[in-house]
Design brief:
The complex is a heterodimer.
Chain A lengths: L1 H9 L5 H6 L10 H19 L4 H6 L1 H11 L14 E4 L5 H11 L39 H14 L6 E6 L6 H13 L4 E7 L8 H5 L4 H7 L3 E6 L3 H13 L5 E6 L22 H11 L4 H8 L9
Parallel strand pairs in A: 1-2, 2-3, 3-5, 4-5
Helix pairs in contact in A: 3-5, 3-6, 3-12, 5-6, 5-11, 7-8, 12-13
Chain B lengths: L4 E4 H15 L3 E5 L3 H4 L2 H6 L4 E3 L4 H13 L3 E5 L2 H7 L1 H9 L6 E4 L18 H6 L5 E3 L4 H13 L4 E4 L4 E3 L14 E4 L4 E5 L2 H15 L4 E5 L2 E3 L3 H11 L2 E8 L4 H12 L4 E6 L9 H7 L4 H16 L7
Parallel strand pairs in B: 2-3, 2-4, 4-5, 5-7, 6-7, 10-11, 10-13, 13-14
Antiparallel strand pairs in B: 1-8, 6-12, 9-11
Helix pairs in contact in B: 1-8, 4-6, 9-13, 10-11
The chains are: A alpha/beta, B alpha/beta.
The structure holds thiamine diphosphate and magnesium ion.
The site of magnesium ion has 7 residues of chain A, from loops.
Chain lengths: ~325, ~325
Amino acid sequence: MAARNRRELTGLKKIGIIKLIMPFVPLTLPELPRMALAIRKEVIRMLGRSGSGHPGGSLSEADLLTCLFFHLMRHDPANPSWEERDRFVLSKGHGCPGVYAAMALAGYFPKEELLTLRRLGSRLQGHPDTRFLPMLEACTGSLGQGLSISCGIALAAKMDRKDHRVYCLMSDGETQEGQTWEAAAFAGFHGLDRLIALVDYNKFQLDGKVADIMDLEPLAKKWESFRWHAQEIDGHDILKIVQAVRQAQAAPGKPHVILAHTVKGKGVSFMEHNNYFHGVTPTAEETEAALKELDGDPSLSKALVAAGKIKMGGK
Amino acid sequence: MTPRLGLATRDAYGQALLELGREDPRVVVLDADLSVSTKTNLFAKEFPDRFLNVGIAEANLVGLAGGLAHSGKIPFISSFACFMICKGYDQLRMAVAVPRANVKVVASHGGISVGEDGASQQSVEDIALAASLPGFTVIVPADEHATRALVKAAARMNGPVYLRTGRPKAPLVYEADSSFAIGKGVLLREGKDVTLAANGLLVGAALAAAEALAADGISAAVVDLHTVKPLDEELIERQAKATGAIVTAEEHQVWGGLGAAVSQAVARRHPVPMEFVAIQDTYAESGKPEELMEKYGLTASGIVQAARRVLKRKRDPSLRSG
Ligand SMILES: Cc1ncc(C[n+]2csc(CCOP(=O)(O)OP(=O)(O)O)c2C)c(N)n1
Ligand SMILES: [Mg+2]
């Protein structure tokens, strides 16, 4: 069922043998961009329907999620509580539409459920809530807490001599939280090398530009001085993401951070670099335009911009 | 009866800050990357030199306010209620409560009427936490007029204040020229059978409940206890004596909120049967604000039901143990 969902989307044939060795068949590198696109489309559909939520950060993280969920992580959508699974913690909780989309496309739950986002009774809460969806691993949405929880998971794995990894997806804004740095110091001191943090460095937070509100730079140097192995990459370059994570997986002794330079709203021209869409969802018209654009036809998006219909924010 | 909706109390806070900024140069405002939502952005625009966005760092925000107050400023600090109180709690103790610093903590998105964002952004325990900080004044205004007046009163008094505002539009309870005093409740409606004591969004609901009860021949008094601490114990005592039964209603967890405070006063001064409309020891979830208020019983009909229960106990002493 998991595989079928995915194959339908990518138009690939099922390879049965690999299934015996790996519980979840990863996509090949050339297949990933299409999956990233599919995630972005689901994000737009969900948020267009829900009428509230966070498009900007869900789009900027989409390529990172694609690489993790469809190529890099050891996991099995048919068995979400599999002991040996790599753990994924979404520290930037408001980015959960992206994660829900990735999970649905990977086969964790039916795609149709995505349209229940934020409705009363839905498992897809406005921010990750393990009371409703245990496979999310952590309750987040209060920014700055995910790295500590990830450290705890990595520490337990070390105690139990387990070899699974912990992937923690963070935001640039939450890097301002003191707790992030308490966790960073802890992980560095204890050499939690199976911990891989990815920072969706999209340059915006809620009220505006990170550099204007409270600049984080020099960020890589900060992490390095906390005894982390830090890499800086283009967070929309699938190959670079995969290479960086592979490097992190291979290098022992230190925890790993990947500073992924991204564009908030990536993929939908009128949302890119436009922080109005941090926490405002697209109207029906904007939803249609965005979906068309993701399908390769930007005409409607261009028309909306030309007509002055797109609100701007955070400049 | 559909209540007339006014502004959200957070909007009224934003407006009041502007007036305070013009009146008193000591007023400074700090926010932790939520100025668009808490409405401190209005102040930021007019007084950029007296506004600071500290980033997503609430504990630091509270500490900074302690230092500013120590140096003679009147800091107003804002974020969502959950983050403001929970992330900066030890800082609220050591930098504000213990030294009795003149810091005004005004937190928005109180309660569960936050809606779709879900449990992480809702606050069901902020009043209990704020009230248990020794020396703190704790205020939950019902509508825009009450908010404007009480924010200004908070600025005029010396000492730490926690004031909670809300996200949705609030039913209008007062007139623009209504007057308020911190620590003094407001008897909004006389009644002889039962007293409905509420604050915040539940005041509007209590008025609607009293209306519904009246249709059934039950005379309910309505009291706005906008100040949870210090509590207006005289008013509560008078109401306990006059009506012999009390229902409290609040958008907060039942442990440690308005109901708990009122019950202490009632037990001490004039014991009568009580019922508590509140969130029953749980976190809420995503949903439309109205749906959540309905699901968790924070509505006029929830108050009506509680009033019927308490009246039964009042009439039949054998049921008094509840
Ligand atoms: C502790 C805490 N403070 C404030 C908020 C409110 N909030 C939600 S999103 C956001 C800004 C997020 O910006 P960033 O972290 O950079 O995320 P992204 O740009 O990826 O959306 C804020 C302040 C929160 N969720 N948690
Ligand atoms: Mg950001």
